Amino acid sequence: MVEMRLWNPHVKLIEDGNVSTSSHDTSNPAGKKKDDLHTMKSVVAALETIAIMLCCGVFLMLLLLCALSRGSSLMNEEKAVAPVLPPDGIFSEFMIFSEKNSRKYGSKDEVTKRLDAYKSHSERIETWKVSKEHGNVEYGHNDLSDWTDEEFENSLMSKSFYQRLRKNEFLKPVPESLAQMKGEAGAPFPDYFDWRDRNVVTPVKAQGKCGSCWAFASTATVEAAWAIAHGEKRNLSEQTLLDCDLDDNACDGGDEDKAFRFIHRNGLAYAADLPYVAHRQETCRVSSNWNTTKIKAAYSLHQDEESIINWLVNFGPVNIGMAVIQPMRAYKGGVFTPSAEACKNEVIGLHALLITGYGTSKDGEKYWIVKNSWGDTWGVENGYIYFARGINACGIEDEPIGILA
Predict the structure, then answer these.
(1) Catalytic annotation on 213?
(2) Which Gene Ontology BP annotations are present (predicted)?
């Protein structure tokens, strides 16, 4: 191996390109000059070699970087062999629905289950929009849209409860002194009336996947009656009835007669003290020290439009029960007028609600203003439905109840 010297302390370059030796070496000037030239050539050759090596190194480095870049690109291409296709319309709608309603599905199977339920419900909504079988009604999605049919039906009361409703023990007939009143100070009934305008009705709540509509309707009736009688709105606890009213069946249904009897005797706790959990808890945690809300009396009203309006205008909202058909699940507006055939052959369960008022549409359709317990994304005006009035559609005028607090 040849050792290269890159610098000679006895040699220096001068501006004219000649080589000059050190002033200390004066012997044999001609030979010295020749040696110096030879040394310079060696230095230049060495520098050229180094430059070539550096260029090769840079070139190799660039090749390596290109290879790495190409490898990364190939990996990305490999990942993209099966690209994610743009979601179809129904999937996009479902994702928006899930985000809007703060859904957190626990697994892929759960996502598939909910998507299938949403898709099926969407298809039925389109069918109902076209058919107009139940009046000029608007349909659309709400918080119930990813429920299966079984879950929705389980949130209703069994049809067998209909036979029990007439076997009242606590409810009494309306006394004549209360039945004969008409309007305010004997005036005719107004064309439109709604207790919400008088600020005595609490906001709509959500019963969830629990057949506790009976508890929600009873509690809503008491809340309104108390506000009318005492000038104080109270947010009361439906959970009181689920946990403590053992004559009823919590999420498996109940009837208003037993519920109002319990409230008359024991009262309802505040919702803040006993919040709703959508199932019966092991113990009744209502304390004797709590300030519970009780009622004085509950009356079974006559089964006709005028009797319901009479109580509504003079005393307060009216508790009612009715049969439910599937299209009601997607109600979004208009006067819902279920067909007689559907009310006879397509009933999926029973439901308890609260009539807060009544009116007539611009097309002359008479309706009840009904507060539901399916949350504030359902129906109109944050949880309400305009339901056909005066024709007892799906039994809405069969079991009216009025209470005094």
Answers:
(1) yes
(2) proteolysis
